[in-house]
User: What shape does this take?
Amino acid sequence: MTSKSNKITGLGISNYYCRSAYLMVHPDSKIRTVADLKGKRLAIGKASGTNFIFRRFIAPANGLKKGDWTVINTLATNRVAALLSRNVEMIMVSNPAAAIALAKGYARTIENYCKYAKVFWLVTARKQAIREQPGRVAGFLRAWTRAVKLQKKNPDLYARVYWKHLRSKGSNISLKLIRKVVGDLQFPSPLVDEAERKWLVHVATVLRTEKKLPRTPTFKYGDGFNLAPLRKALRAENN
Assistant: This one.
């Protein structure tokens, strides 16, 4: 995707994260479905993409309309605490916080985002960096594609490498939780296919109706994406 200032462009797809985006409630909550959120409070980032997906796709699919629930704008690091203190009835939380909350019995899962949206992270870069530092961009993309290959070929080794890195930074997270976190990620081809492009156009169209975008990008080469650096990196890795 390209920024409003047209200074940033997409280079490829990092991963699908719908299995890592959870709607959770207190373990003893009477809430069983998203529809039960009516009249209750949801802790989520108000200006986040996950909230956009919730209010435009998930809520309507569960019979909820604007005003049926209250958004409590909450930092991701504070949402589990908000749930445990009964300040909200539902939270949207991603891994690793979601995996930790489940493992410790702090929360119960209602569902994830997979049924409702084709959500994925994008690898982006400044257009200036692509022009002026192509070697650094290529080096990053080659390292990234190697990591994706490792996750697909040997997910356990991938998890161990990630876990050791976190431990070196002072984290005491367990390898079991890291396996869960990594297992929830999906790594497709990093190149954007037609289905993914159409999804981005659909989301952009919805955003334009909300006057969040001045136009609807095509997300073809030069209009939101520049796949040339990634294709070059993939060729280099496959040789």
Summary: The chain is about 45% helix and 15% strand.
